[in-house]
UniProtKB/TrEMBL annotation:
Keyword Ribosomal protein: no
Signal peptide (UniProt feature, chain positions): 1-20
Pfam families in the record: SBP_bac_1 (PF01547)
Record keyword Secreted present: no
Region of interest (Disordered), ranges: 224-248, 416-438
Protein name as catalogued: Extracellular solute-binding protein
Keywords: Signal, Transport
Family: Belongs to the bacterial solute-binding protein 1 family.
PANTHER family xref list: ARABINOSE-BINDING PROTEIN-RELATED, OSMOPROTECTIVE COMPOUNDS-BINDING PROTEIN GGTB
Length: 438
């Protein structure tokens, strides 16, 4: 693997992060003992993670510098092009991680760091004839759930939909379609689709997932559609307190809506509801009206740590963060509604009823967990999927769907025939579905 001056790398990384409008200054300190971490958490989540790193640094003797950004992919690509990557990057895309590994940008994890590489979050890759682990989950989330206000009782859902998410607008819709396909077609078909071995245009499972989503949402006025396309999945701030954090779609951003299909991380927007237990969380399969042949399968996502330099302290940090002490330290550093979920039943568990329910599905109540399909796909196909979902949400006619599925199949076919990486085409790993519990 490549060798580089750690002092130069730290200086370049700090300057590049400053240019990318990230917080903080130069890392400083002994380059052999300093670890630069790039991750997706900002605001209170980022502050909690920084606090956990500060606590862990007292035990390890290393200095940890965390830089959080909402433009994670763009920032990391810029750093890699400048030859100044962070020591550790925290990403949620297996597709991106696979490409980085194939291009020689990732270091294989040490046996100690790889020990808690639980499937389906941490599949092994075969590169240069060797099977190795290149990332492990730090935090995981459950995607196959629906949130609702307890006061609505058994009222028919009025769906809250916010599709905007900066450069990744559309993913709340792809989550829906992935979840539906998993429940209807099962883990085997889902895996072949996510890993690029299923024809988008001609396989009935893909078309059925799109049309089922449209049927569940029901008729929507042009005004409602436009509002959902421009509304952030996080909602809007309270107009009486514009500088306050966003309040979520169920928190008043979309008045009148009662149900939200969203991952377990969304509870961070509802601290009051988590405290007084006024939100209900249910498996999404219950809302498919008897069309879920695989109701005990669940889609999951994760924030995975990968090492990008030869700094041995980076491997040590990944080992520490995934240890029992590391996870307890992180849990103690954050408020209840921000507390992370972990993939093992022996790890710290949230102490609120809703959090415990989510943790149970992640660790033992589900039959099978499958990793987020769009996050398994190569980035170019994932981004095309996002755009297609936005178009279909706006115009769900059969002709529109025919065109979109044809375009997506063209992208998939082109990727399948294009070599990439130092060792030729490296496909996403097949083991993206597994039993829960580590």
């Amino acid at each position: 693997m490549r060798r580089r001056s750690r002092v130069l790398r730290l200086a370049l990384a700090a300057c590049l992060l400053a240019l990318a409008a990230l917080t903080g200054g130069c890392a400083g300190g002994d380059a052999h003992r300093t670890v630069v971490v790039l991750g997706p958490w900002t605001g209170p989540e980022g502050a909690a993670f920084e606090d956990a790193l500060a606590r862990l640094s007292h035990h390890s003797g290393h200095h940890y510098v965390y830089k959080g950004t909402r433009s994670l992919r763009e920032t990391l690509v810029a750093q890699l092009e400048a030859g100044a990557p962070p020591d550790v990057a925290i990403l949620n895309s297996i597709g991106e991680l696979t490409e980085y590994a194939a291009d020689g940008k990732l270091e294989p994890l040490s046996p100690q760091a790889a020990e808690r590489g639980y499937p389906p979050w941490s599949p092994t890759l075969t590169l240069d004839g060797r099977h190795r682990t290149y990332w492990v989950p730090l935090r995981v989330n459950l995607k196959s759930v629906v949130w609702s206000k307890r006061a609505t009782g058994t009222k028919a859902p009025d769906w809250c939909v916010g599709m905007a998410a900066q450069a990744t607008s559309g993913w709340p819709g792809t989550d829906w379609i992935e979840d539906i396909l998993l429940h209807q077609a099962g883990p085997d078909t889902y895996t072949r689709w996510a890993t690029g071995r299923l024809d988008w245009k001609h396989d009935p499972a893909v078309r059925r997932a799109f049309t089922t989503w449209s049927e569940i949402l029901g008729p929507r006025s042009p005004k409602s559609v436009e509002r959902s396309l421009t509304m952030s999945f996080e909602g809007t701030p309270d107009p009486e307190h514009p500088n306050a954090p966003k309040r979520g779609l169920l928190g008043g951003s979309l008045p009148g809506c009662t149900h939200e299909h969203q991952g377990s991380f969304i509870r961070s927007l509802y601290p009051g509801a988590m405290a007084d237990n006024t939100l209900r969380v249910e498996p999404a399969a219950r809302f498919l009206h008897g069309r879920a042949a695989y109701k005990d399968t669940y889609e999951v996502s994760g924030d995975m740590a990968a090492v990008l330099t030869d700094n041995p302290a980076a491997q040590d940090l990944v080992t520490l963060l995934t240890s029992e002490d590391g996870r307890k330290t992180w849990s103690r550093s954050t408020d209840a509604h921000l507390r992370p979920f972990f993939p093992d039943a022996t790890d710290p568990r949230p102490d609120d009823p809703t959090g415990r329910a989510v943790a149970s599905y992640l660790t033992h109540d589900a039959d099978t967990l499958c990793f987020d399909a769009s996050d398994v796909m190569p980035p170019v196909l994932r981004d095309a999927f996002y755009r297609a979902v936005l178009t279909y949400f706006q115009d769900p006619r059969t002709g529109t769907l025919d065109t979109l599925l044809g375009q997506l199949e063209t992208v998939r076919s082109q990727i399948a025939g294009t070599p990439s990486g130092r060792s030729g085409r490296v496909h996403a790993p097949d083991d993206i579905c597994a039993s829960p519990g580590g």
